[in-house]
Design a protein that fits this description.
globular, 5-stranded parallel sheet, single chain, 11 helices, 48% helix, 12% strand, alpha/beta
Length: 195
Amino acid sequence: MLYIFDMGGVVTNDADGSRIIGEKIGLGREGFRKVCMDGSDGNGDLLLRISNGEIGVKEFWGIFESRSGIHARTDWWHALFHPYLNQGTASVIKRLRERGSRVVCGTNTMESHYASHVERGDYALFDQTYASFQMGVSKPDTEFWKIILDAEGCSAKDAVFIDDRRENCEAAASLGMRVIHFTSAESLGHELFGT
């Protein structure tokens, strides 16, 4: 059995980068997201494009500055990203691997957040990490899971996907995967081990 875990909101807290950065630069969460998603300049939704790896952080901040007039002195995605590990979920992952299961991470992320997780050793919990910015596609696009299943040589019926976002769970389920909508490490442990 292959287990595919989402990262933010499941293995680590769901650090709301839009809120944190928005507050830092004085736009608030909604103001920051509005600038990022305003594609009237032909550059599209910057949040989706950086998650899909279509643009890097320097290009993101350059477009953001031209849209907003606000100069980003640094890569705020990296500088302000300080997630913490959910120890309960980490224990579930370790237990699955001790039982001989293949456990991978399937995450919507960008290079800055990916680098932070690498620095912290968060991905060491997994046998493999599949990051949207490297794959060129983000959840809930079903191509995201098709790439993982193909790379792992696994059929959808032999895979379990765990995520805190319902839309991602629904998309994975449409492929025939078993899904677990994550609410807590305790309920996840009960679902997987009956404890």
